[in-house]
Write a structure and sequence with these properties.
Length: about 290
């Protein structure tokens, strides 16, 4: 799933390539992709893109309509969605099928982008609103890790409020922390040498400070690594720079121990036993008890 760094990079790509361009076509292709009714796609025709921003994992394209009205095209790419920029979009209307096309936007110069989604679970969502706060997922977002208000003390308060909840789950709860998902939470916990299942309120002051530094550091490094890349290259760049996430069975780049995995119904996490759990191997089942 695209997380904060990838959405930041996609927003940057669109700011560089599309700001000032005028919409010629806005085509919802997948029947369930567009989640709003009014304004409608026709209201985007003739609108100029004035900015591209990010709210957590949501991409926000800000348009000025012909009459000066603000319109926000907000997209959540979900688990298997992506944005594909094209300098020359097809002249024919978009059609669904093998490519997983969900939404197409074409500017008057022929360039534009497709929002696509792989797999059978179609969860990619597009909203056309006058204020991004009208999107339920945006309205409930917690603090952004890049916000100046996200201090060590702020993180400590969030963890304390979470009680005995597992730290991994707190980091990926979008109502607590906006933009952090499965991959970068694994990376931050590894960098901070913390177990993904450590009770959030049980972390000491030094551990909270280490987690804050790791979280912000991992995310900033990922944003910097993605800077200047085309949208098509972002996935490979992300994968190449991960230390433990998605690297089950490989050697930990810090200590050499084998990276282990805990699997759930629809996702998994990765960690290093030596670096994070005192050498103990977490049981690979939903209860996640430690093996003796």
């Amino acid at each position: 799933m695209p997380e904060l760094p990838e959405m930041e990079a996609l927003a940057s790509v669109l700011r560089e390539r599309a700001v000032g361009k005028v919409v010629a076509r806005a085509e919802p292709v997948a029947i369930n992709a567009l989640r709003t009714v009014s304004p409608g796609p026709g209201d985007l025709l003739g609108a100029a893109l004035v900015d591209a921003a990010r709210h957590g994992k949501f991409l926000d394209l800000v348009f000025a309509a012909a009459g000066g009205e603000r319109l926000d095209l907000v997209a959540h790419l979900s688990r298997a969605g992506w944005l594909r920029w094209k300098e020359n979009q097809p002249a024919a209307p978009g059609r669904g099928g093998r490519g997983g096309l969900a939404f197409r936007l074409v500017f008057t110069d022929g360039s534009g982008f497709d929002l696509t989604e792989a797999g059978t679970q179609k969860r990619l969502a597009v909203y056309l609103v006058r204020d991004p706060a009208e999107v339920p997922g945006v309205a409930r977002l917690g603090i952004d890790p890049f916000d100046d208000a996200f201090t060590v003390e702020a993180l400590a308060e969030l963890l304390t409020a979470a009680g005995r909840a597992q730290t991994k789950g707190v980091l990926t709860d979008q109502s607590v922390l906006a933009g952090v998902g499965n991959a970068y939470s694994d990376e931050a916990l590894w960098a901070a040498r913390l177990s993904p299942f450590a009770p959030a309120s049980g972390l000491g002051a030094e551990q909270v400070s280490a987690l804050h530094a790791a979280l912000v550091g991992v995310l900033r490094a990922a944003v910097e690594a993605a800077g200047g890349l085309a949208a098509a290259d972002l996935k490979a760049e992300k994968k190449a720079n991960l230390a433990v996430h998605g690297r089950t069975g490989q050697a930990c780049p810090r200590c050499g121990d084998t990276v282990r995995q805990v699997s759930f119904a629809d996702r998994s996490l990765q960690y290093c036993p030596t670096c994070q759990t005192g050498g103990r191997v977490l049981a690979d089942r939903r209860m996640s008890r430690l093996l003796k």
